[in-house]
Structure formats: C-alpha cells, structure tokens
C-alpha cells in the first residue's frame, strides 16, 4: 500500500499544509514534498503582509511559497484576501486620518464606504491578477461570522461591516471573480462551522449570497478541532448542508488539539505527553478521515494548519493559557517529524 498521504487520498481530495517561507527548506520541505500536494501560506499572504501601507505591495515572502508550489507541482490555496485580523489600520482611516467607524454624518459615511470599497477592490484586484495562474482556491473572506456579535444575523462587527454592511463581502467575491481564472474556486472560510448557532448563521449568509448571484464556489471549514469536539455528526451535517446548496467544501486549517478550550492544563513539554494521548488522538483521526472519505464527492481538499508538532499556533495558545509553559501536538507528524499513531490511522 502507498504510504504518502497525498497518494493515499489521491482519488478523494488534495492533502495540504500551511507553511511559513522558512519551512520550505530543511525537514519540513522534505515532508511537504513527500506527503502533500497542496500548500497554503500560514501568514504571509494576509493583508498586513501583502499591503502594509496603501499602495505598497510586498510580495517577496508570498512569492517564495508560490515558487515552491510550482516547482513541486502542488496546488496552492490563497489565505486570505479579506480578514478583520492582521489587516493594517490604514484601510479604515479616512483621508484626514480619522477612524471611519467614528463618522456620524450620513454623507461622509457614504463617502467613507465608497473609499473603503475602492481600497478593497484595489487590494483584491492587484493580488488576484498577480497570482491568477498559481492559485486554484481563494479564501476571499475569512471569519465574517461572529455568533457573539449580538446582531440577529451573527455578522461580525468588524470595521469592514461597520463601514460597508455586507457589501464588502459581495464586492470581494465579485472582484476576485473578475480577475481569477475561470476554473479557480472562491471560498468563504470560517471556524466552528460545525456547531450551532454559528453553522446556521453561516448557512443563512451563504444562501443569501448564492440567491443574490454572488460568485461563491465553496465553504472553507477551518476545522480547528479537539479530540472530543465537535461530534462526527455535526461535522458531517455541516458538509452536507453546504453541499446541498450546490457548493464545494474544503477542510482548510485542520488540527486536532489534545485539549479542550481554553487549553488548560497543558503538558509542559513534548516529552511529558503520554503515548496514550497519541493513541486517543489516532482514534479521532481515524474516524475523521473515514468520514471525509465517505463524503469525498463533497470535499475537494483537506489542509492541515502546519506540518509537524514542532510548529503550530496551538503551542502559542498552550503557553498563553498555562503561564508560559505548555505544548500541544495536533498533527500526524511529531515534533521531530516522525510519524505518529495518527498518521497510521489515516493511512490504513
Ligand atoms: O512576525 C512577527 C515577528 O516579527 C515577531 O517577533 C513576533 C512576536 O510575537 O510576532 C510575529 O508575528 C506573529 C505571526 O503569527 C507570525 O509568526 C504574530 O505575533 C502572531 O499573532 C501570528 O499568529 C498567527 C495568527 O493566525 C494571527 O491571528 C498564526 O501564526 C496563524 O497560525 C494564525 O492562523 C489563523 C488563520 O489565519 C485563520 N484561522 C485561525 C488560525 C489560527 O489562529
């Protein structure tokens, strides 16, 4: 039987990993070439990295990932054109340098809205034109739902929303569609897409976009999940819901934390994690990939939010919630790039 992850799932979906440019050489690079046929940038394609100042586009780091993907014939997802986080402040300042969200005059508010939509268009257009031949899937908007926002549609009250309503979402998709390759896919990406009430908020928004003729192709499910949460039924239902709208699904940021939320208490070092935890995690990975495979006509790609346990945002979270000492172990390769029980679980 083949032992490369991408080879194992080649009849079902792509297998991807999130990377920083420095990971492309050395051990991560070797694992990437051997086991993965798709990539996404963990940070360097976010707005703050691509256009830190208005009109000053910096593609150097992003280009390294594009080049590696091309050279190794890998698919590339773009993460992310529009987001409320890791976005430079200048987007939301008016010509006088005031916060647009503070504006109360209706006429000026309308002007601000047009200015912001124009900036959004320029941002999206410049990136999509540059990478149109390299990117097969675009995260057009990321995390626009916030179940705690307190409005009846669960729309995140980011500056994007406060200044433009939901127009920023529509303009982002329309602009991406205008400049992307015709067969590229445009995604709305979010976390906790499996759990209520967020799932329904997202569904209602996506349904509205589809009805309005907004060019959206699929839903990206980040899948920052835990060993016992959410349930397999919740995961399956959410894939089916969006597929029933005629949309593609991608798993875009998969990691399986050993902990609940918040991640406390956490193991202080990697060596302190007992083997039984890895076995418990392997059962989860086994069930998860069995489900993904069963739904493979509705899922076109499964991307891990990293490669091996030595580099994961969850380690930062584990530290943060445990007085600076704590590690997580969310992937199928351990902190020295050896395969874990979770690897065998998804191969077999
Ligand atoms: O680059 C600077 C470095 O110069 C500085 O010394 C260092 C000090 O803290 O920070 C570095 O920037 C960090 C950056 O990652 C690159 O390592 C930021 O502080 C840190 O906040 C940032 O975290 C990223 C996070 O998004 C930002 O919100 C994580 O790496 C990244 O994994 C995470 O990814 C997100 C997805 O985009 C969206 N879905 C959730 C997912 C996990 O939070």
Structure, explained:
The chain is an alpha/beta fold and 348 residues long. 39% of the residues lie in helices and 14% in strands. It has helices at 5-8, 26-35, 47-50, 60-71, 106-131, 159-164, 167-179, 198-211, 232-244, 275-294, 313-320, 341-347, and strands at 14-19, 38-41, 75-78, 137-142, 185-190, 218-221, 224-226, 248-257, 299-304. Strands 1-2-3-4-5-6-8-9 form an eight-stranded parallel barrel, surrounded by four helices. α5 (106-131) runs parallel beside α7 (167-179) and α10 runs parallel beside α12. The model has no long low-confidence stretch (mean pLDDT 98). Ligand G3I is lined by residues 42-43, 85-86, 142, 191, 222, 253, 313. Ligand G3I binds at residues 42-43, 85-86, 142, 191, 222, 253, 313. InterPro entries: GH, GH10, GH10_AS, GH10_dom. This is Beta-xylanase. Keywords: Carbohydrate metabolism, Glycosidase, Hydrolase, Polysaccharide degradation, Signal, Xylan degradation. Its EC number is 3.2.1.8.
Give keywords.
348 residues, alpha/beta, 12 helices, 9 strands, 39% helix, 14% strand, globular, binds ligand G3I
Helix % is: 25-40%
Helix- and strand-based class?
Answer: alpha/beta
Question: How are strands sequenced across the largest beta sheet?
Answer: 1-2-3-4-5-6-8-9
Q: Which band does the percent of strand residues land in?
A: 5-15%
SSE pattern: HEHEHHEHEHHEHEEHEHEHH
Identify the overall geometry.
Answer: globular
Number of strands: 9
Largest sheet data: 8 strands, parallel, barrel
The first-to-last residue Cα distance is 9 Å
Bound molecule kinds, no repeats: ligand G3I
Ranges where pLDDT stays below 50 over 5 or more residues in a row are none
Give the overall pLDDT as a whole number.
Answer: 98
Query: Any idea what the radius of gyration is?
Result: 20 Å
Number of helices: 12
